[in-house]
Amino acid sequence: MEQHPRPKGVVYLVGAGPGDAGLITVKGLRCLQEADVVVYDRLAGPRLMQFAKRGARKIYVGKLPDRHAMKQEDINRLLVELALEGHTVTRLKGGDPCVFGRVGEEAALLAEHGLRYEIVPGVTSAVAAPAYAGIPVTHRSRASSFCVVTGHESPDKLDEMIEWDKLTQATGTLLFLMGVAKLRYIAERLMAYGRAPDTPVALVRWGTRAEQATITGTLATIADEVERAGFASPAVIVVGEVVRERERLQWAESRPLFGRRVLVTRARDQASELTRRIEDAGGEPYEYPVIELRMPESPASREALRQALAQPDAYDWLVLTSVNGVRFWFRHLREHGADIRQWAHVRIVSVGPKTTEALQEYGIQPDIAASQFSQEGVWEALRPHAAAGQRVLLARGDLSRSWLRETMEAHGLHADEVDLYETVLPEEDDPELIEMLEQRMIHIVTFTSSSTVTNLMAALRRMGLDDPAQALGVARIACIGEITARTAREAGLHVDVIAASSTIDGLMEAMLELGKMKKTV
Ligand code: SAH
């Protein structure tokens, strides 16, 4: 009987880098985005998982507090099975997969089965964690070589595996991974084989992440220092003269939002600017978009839009109140086969500089650009130009307040409201976020509208948190404006800062104020 060859998948063995999501390679990111299945562990960092394809299967094989990690042999077999099933698999590993990443065993079994795989190198923590602590592993006048050594084994095993005499004398900087528990032994051995007791040593824990912490000492003192500070793994141990550079070169830890993981709740396509700004300030953003905007589905909304778009001549004014409003306005025009030139006689009001910019991208200069980003701001700007009897089309999102329409009508204008888009709660759960909240790993929560507040609370409840306000209570809360803050308070949250101007700039400034405060978590 003729046998059809089974469809075979591919396994990408990808280095995730040390934790800062920006440190994955371009190729590694592509593999992550294309995979149907992502197999990952603790060191790969939760944030990268957000780049996985929607609906991709995510399999965690790392250690959990309540159970052991999956055995290496089982992981090897899992990868083979997934590839045999025809999947595109990305095996995401912390740092570089070839540096104590056991990639050799995974690749060997795949090779044995004739399965296709690729190794995608990553930025190893051995080099990156010291770099983020201001320690270059080589230096023109301090070290011309470095050596990466395992500290994982028992002392006997270490003695068997490591030629201490050669190691201490042959190379400049020594970098031990997985060595925190054996630090005292390692330091003693290095001194016994000829390194001076005053050789500087640094430990960098969770390098490049919000949890990064550094402790320094000498070979003679470091074990006591680490014990006293309760300094725990995972950390890179750096031994050598290069550690002295930290005093001058330390950079990451002095950035204003260093050490803060910031939850960004706004819609995904809007989040990038805020995310980038948080990164620039040294914080670690974590995106959980609780808002998704889509074309309105209710027949009433669709009908109102259809009517409005069919009669541009009925209006004197068109008010567009957000960047999203502008984008959706043009989507609707396209969908209805309309042309913006039919609206040439209608005067356009925009709110806020971003909305104005968005309009300019479409070749439109608004007649009035309200600087205050609120309905009150629109009215203030429009009022001197509007006359009773004129007709206004208020094109906005489905959650907008009716204040502006009512105010206009009270002044004798006719205002029609249309919903350009609908705001919905995305369906995808995020167990990583729940885990991080429980571990107090979220330090600041940002709300950029009232709906981000209500939707986050709803999403957390849906994911099984009985008391979301309490879960968020361990973090600082930053709101973009007074109305958002009021909604947050009504939801039982303690608001720590409110942006002075309701813009991303304002929100960043407010967060920098928080950055100056002592961390409570
Ligand atoms: N393949 C990884 C190393 C895996 S071994 C790499 O190239 O980085 C695990 C050890 O790596 C940990 O015990 C710790 O010593 C080190 N490590 C991994 N990520 C780290 C980080 N962000 N900060 C400090 N040490 C880290």
Structural overview:
It holds the Pfam family TP_methylase. Belongs to the precorrin methyltransferase family. One of its GO terms (biological process) is methylation. Keywords: Methyltransferase, Porphyrin biosynthesis, S-adenosyl-L-methionine, Transferase. Residues 11-222 form the Tetrapyrrole methylase domain. By secondary structure, the protein is an alpha/beta fold. Helix content is 36%, strand content 20%. It has 20 helices and 21 strands. Helix 15 links the parallel strand 17 and strand 18. Helix 12 (323-335) packs parallel to helix 13 (352-361), helix 14 (375-382) packs parallel to helix 15 and helix 17 runs parallel beside helix 19 (482-490). The N and C termini lie far apart (66 Å). The relative contact order is 0.08.
Tell me about the largest β-sheet: 6 strands, mixed
Number of strands: 21
Q: Roughly how much helix do the residues carry, as a percent range?
A: 25-40%
> What's the number of helices?
20
Report the radius of gyration as a whole number of Å.
Answer: 28 Å
Structural class: alpha/beta
Strand content: 15-25%
- What's the N-to-C terminus distance? 66 Å
List low-pLDDT spans: none
Bound molecules: S-adenosyl-L-homocysteine
The largest sheet has its strands arranged as 13-18-17-14-15-16
What is the residue-averaged pLDDT?
Answer: 92
Overall spatial form? elongated
